[in-house]
Amino acid sequence: MATSSMPSALKAYWLPLLLLSASIVFQLFVIPLSFPHSHYDVLGVKRYCSIEEVEEAYMKLMSKWNTGAEVRATTDFIKMQYAYELLRNPLWKRDYDNFGIDEQHDLVEAVKGQYAGRSFSEIDLPLLVAPSFDHGGSAFNAISSEEFRSIFDNERAWLIKIYSSGSSGCARFLNNWKKIDSLLDDVANTGMVELGEAQLATYLAEKRPTGQPFFRNGLPSLVAFPSGCRNADCMLRYEGGLSVDAVTDWFATTILSLPRILFYSKESLGQGLHGSPHKVKAIFFSKTGERATPFVRQAAKNYWAYAQFAYVLWRLEESSFWWNMFEVDSAPAIVILKDPGVKPLVHHGPVNSSWLLDILERNKMQVLPQLRSVTSMELGCDAKGYSRAGNDTTTWYCVILAGRQSLELNKMRETIRKVQETLSRDDKLNAADKDPSAIALKNKRLTFAWLDGEAQKKYCFFYLNSENSYETCGPRRAPIDVPQLFIVRYKRNATEDSLKVEKKRKTVFDAFLDDDVDPASQLVARYNGSDDISLIIQWVSNIIEDGDSKDLPYFRTKTPELIPEDADPIWSRGARSIASKSMGVKEGIFKIRNMINDHLGDPRIGPLLLLGALIFFGKIWLQRSQSSHPNSSQPSRKDEVAGKRRKRAENISHQDRPSSITDVDPKDAYQFEISDSDSD
Length: 680
Known about the structure:
By secondary structure, the protein is of the alpha/beta class.
């Protein structure tokens, strides 16, 4: 009987037994590993005692060793000596007490192996050597607890290094930090927090489940605050290697959301830059092969709509190729490529951020700029905007060359560039000798641009609506492409703009009528002559002269929107969304692993497991005792089920029986009171 009940009892109590076993294993094995003996225990003193008490305990132990009163292994002496040297140093003791930092602990094992089998008197002392270096706190913007709140007054991101003046790892990282600070100077702020700022260092540290602050990867520790982040909830912690390239790449990519600039070979460069014919090309030649600096990546982000960036590793054996291609004879160098057939702009030598931004701003558009969604307002070729000359100019012109990407279009673009250059040279002539087109170009009332007729087919058909427009606009249908030149005169009604008042919309249709047409009128003239430069200039001049002098019709309409050529890049979606799915899974696994490791050292887990085992044991025992000794005064489960079935059957039988006058009282019925007297 007892033998047969044992398996059933084990089956019933398997969960509390499992919890009890886990509690015992946790208390006997896991907790000792998570809380090893401290250096204070080695010296036989209480934790957090003073340096004087440490020295006193050490002297007592040494006297025993020297007199031979206590003979122990050499490894014990090494542990005692290491604990004494660590706790005697104020900086090391502070870091060990507050954050559990013991970065030279591996030295104990190394010394044990070196002096194995030898006497403790042969050990070279001291074991530890304090690093001597100067961080130069003023040069790197040391941050105190009082200054921490004020550093977020500007919107720039922050990279903060948490360090200790007594850390040898921080001493080795110092030169790398100087380079990182220099590279990030133009795009972000950097600062340093010493562990002596205990309140601030604790705020920036990681926390164990018990609340103890610590630094998982030791010192130095790097944390970043993205733009707009003002507390630790959105703070990001760097977990990678401490090389200059690794830190700056992580910060530029993850925190600043800056695009990476790829390296190309001479074979892949043309294919890599072919996908964006509407952009200026900025090619950087590097001798070292290092990644693009953060300020170059910031420039690539700022001018993403105008320029495409690429890096090329300079090789001596390829120098003749690059000289023939771009006239580059050494690295570092920068090449700016604009229109096809235009000589590239080449700069040799290193550059700084201000020079790079200046050169990109002056060369962000092609010599003959392309009419695009991001350039139409800036070029003055938009009926919703104004002239390049300013808002006071009421009449201005835009000469547009439309066509599909082809050799014919490139040839005509070169012709229009020569027209533009010819009119620009007329600035040196007297006003009487100038063409009206040259004067309008100088006064920024005239703009030359080209339009991709295939990409902007609706816009192209809007201005070139004729039977042969398909030779210029829309998808290619024939092997021959015919670029077409036209001019648009824009005119704003100054009186209407000045008297424009806010009108109360009576119906929903009024909202659509208000935005139905563009504010500037447009008149379009198409050029049907030859490619001769002088004829084109004469045609433009005649149009401008007539447009300025004659009272031409004032016609307004709604112009189709220009389609953006590029989709939003992935780095424009924010710092936390640029990582790939695989990286997100990897980071999630690391976080789960770290969380498990942290909670394994929580001393509360063992008692909680024991409490859970007792609760489940009591619950199961109560259930089993009730089932084995049922109460006769209470109906059993079978009786309850049978009673419910009988009641349900009776209800069904009553539903099938026809109603009777004696079953239910009629509506508005009441009982008549009968008196004892007949006369009543």
